[in-house]
Amino acid sequence: MRIAIVNDMVMAVECLRRAVVSSPEHEIAWIAVNGAEAVEKSRADRPDLILMDLYMPVMDGAEATRQIMRESPCVVLVVTSDVEGNAELVFRAMGAGALDAVNTPLCIGTGREPAAGALLEKIATLRSLVSHQSPPLLMGPECGVGTFTRTDFPLVIVGASAGGPNALAELLARLPVNFAAGIVVVQHVDAHFASELARWLSLQTRRSVRAVQQGEEPRPGEVLVAATDDHLVLRPDRSLSYEVEPRKAVYKPSVDVFFNSVLCNWQGPVAAVLLSGMGRDGAEAMVKLRDAGYLTCAQDEASAAVYGMPRAAKELGGASHVMPPAQIADTLVNWVKDLVTLTATKATEMASETANTAHSLSPDMDSNTARVMLVDDQLIVFEAFRRMLDDVDDVELRYCSDPARAIAEAQVFRPTVILQDLVMPGMNGLMLLGLLRSDSVTKNIPVIVLSTKEDPKIKSEAFAIGASDYLVKFPDRIELLARIRAQSRSFLVQEQRDQAYRELRTLKFELERKNAELEALSCRDGLTGVLNRRAFDEYIGKEWSRAIRENGNVGLLLIDIDYFKNYNDNFGHQDGDECLRRVAVALGAGLKRPSDIVARYGGEEFAVILPDVKADGGAVIAESLRSAVENLQLAHDYSGVADHVTISIGVASTRPKSGQLPEHLLRAADKALYEAKATGRNRVAVARNFGEV
User: Fold this and answer.
1) Lowest mean pLDDT among 207-211, 282-286, 534-538, 656-660
2) What pLDDT shows up at residue 132?
3) What pLDDT does 38 receive?
4) What is the rounded CA–CA span in Å between residue 489 and residue 222?
5) Are 471 and 454 within 8 A, CB to CB?
């Protein structure tokens, strides 16, 4: 394996050289002292692997990686003095296409000393990844795939490798804050570095992203990242687990292994996403997911830093959508919205169908057929009953000679009537009756007790334990058929009623849950995720009434993005939408109390309601929000006040009196906003002497 070293420190170069040549399988391709030189040498002589430092003169390692992956792509391993301490630049390099990162080894002894062990392990792993032979596909145990029976929420599963962090950040940042699906990410990265990846993604996307904890379950709205050097799998109980098998898998954690476990065990809608990465990990499992009817998306070649994993998924036919991360995010948003609408619609239809068919039986409970199981140790008794029932079309007879196997036989046969003798070897008939009544499958099945004589005491005991009827052997054929049919019909009708009740109860719960989700969505602005105008009007009305009752204050901020029309007209509506999202996130992050809320008031205007806040306090909060938006440093070349996006804020506060309406406060805040804009924008103006105490 030909390995290049890019580092400006002589001692570090020597340590890396000694580590590399300690293995007869490795040789030094070339050495460069800065990123620009590495780009030139890669163009002239492409190595199998580059050990890339981060901080160097002329050109840093992240930019060098970006140019190398664009012009002469090969495997890049970041080697730096402190991976965690340099996390920001490490992720820039990994976003540009670097596959992994490791600390620079200490130059002690030979390269096989423990100081170089981590580096050599990384090189060995990467060597298997760049082998010309495709690695064997190891995805864990096979499973049967069927329709789900549990109403799990939607789950988005994401696989990524080299170039993945930037693509992940772009995708997650695009999703609305009220995104109703759980998200689990498998990124090829060291376990000890996964927490740094989660922290970096949180900063980049303004979302809560954290490493998976052993045994936890995915949850709607949460983003979890695998933190393992083995495999992440989803278990049948919906928990996430770190497991060593399959041990021979080249990729660890393997996207294929995780995707396959989700295919086997997740009982709900699934969307699978493959982002930038080297190799083909995840592609085979994505084919199976698409065949099972799930949504599958792969990053397109133009936007991918390394078009390996997505290419494999596309070529195998596993990707139903191939597009940039931002469009994948939009597709996921529409997918979740469609699922919410579809589930609510289906629940309504199913409830109607259940009500309309309340008196019909399920297919496996034909009301015209009595399924009879006879439990008796004497074959001659079975033969007598068989002859009485043999030519009866609406009766099916099953014989069980061993009372110890009666419950197991009933669980398989599912009788609608059980004929049971009272005297049998090995088990008392009354004891068997008690066992039948304590089993969940047989507890409601009618049991007709058979006895050789009319014994009031035995009959009383049998009925007390749960017998449905009592017959003396051998009954008249007409009487036997009448009793079997009556008991069977009664059982089937009761079972059908219970089943209808359970379905209606489940559907009622499902409708209530979906209605709650729809209500939550109806209160949120679809673009920014903050409260919409309708929710704003409701909230300020409630706070207004509360303030009147408690003689308190209501504070209000009206916020306008400066020169937003110029921004939209020149940068386009897509960038304009992204600007609105970023500003909304900054405003929401700047509010410290749960009672303070931000809402989209209209167009590029936002409103913030501040219960129990006077004008001076509102001015302090407004100034902090103005600074937060300015610190985003969103370029705005068409603003008349700055070269970046800014906001103007009007502040008002009042102690409302009975008979006054919230419009009183809104007008004052609007006048203050007008003053802020008229006096130069990018500033805060306060409505003074306005009804506050």
Assistant:
1) 207-211
2) 39
3) 94
4) 50
5) no
Task: Please state whether the peptide bond connecting residue 253 to the residue before it is cis, i.e. omega within 30 degrees of 0.
Answer: yes
DSSP 11-71: HHHHHHHHHHHTSTT-EEEEEESSHHHHHHHHHHS--SEEEE-SS-SSS-HHHHHHHHHHH
Fold that domain 533-686 belongs to in CATH: Alpha-Beta Plaits (3.30.70)
- What ranges in 466-601 are assigned the alpha helix state H? 477-522, 533-550, 564-571, 573-589
**pTM over cut 0.70:** no
Strands of 153-288, DSSP E: 155-160, 182-187, 209-211, 223-225, 231-234, 240-243, 270-274
| HSE-up of residue 658 (Cα within 13 Å, Cβ side) | 2
Within 10 A of 581 (CB to CB), how many other CB atoms are there? 21
Catalytic residue among 100, 281, 421, 670: 281
Active site residue 490: no
| Sequence-distant (≥ 6) Cβ neighbours of residue 672 within 8 angstroms | 558, 650, 651, 652, 685, 686, 687
The verdict on whether 636 is a catalytic residue reads no
Please identify which residue in the block is written with the tokens 């006096």.
679
Q: Is 202 a catalytic residue?
A: no
Superfamily of domain 155-334 in CATH is Methylesterase CheB, C-terminal domain (3.40.50.180)
* Chain segment 655-665, per-residue pLDDT in tens: 999 989 999 99
Q: How many whole angstroms separate alpha carbon 285 and alpha carbon 274?
A: 11
Q: What is the CATH number of domain 370-494?
A: 3.40.50.2300
Tell me the CATH number for domain 2-129: 3.40.50.2300
How far is CA 298 from each of CA 100, 166, 180, 259, 260, rounded to the nearest angstrom?
A: 21, 15, 21, 14, 17
- Boundaries of every domain in the chain: 2-129, 155-334, 370-494, 533-686
Mean pLDDT score, 44-63: 92
> Catalytic: which of 42, 100, 161, 254?
161
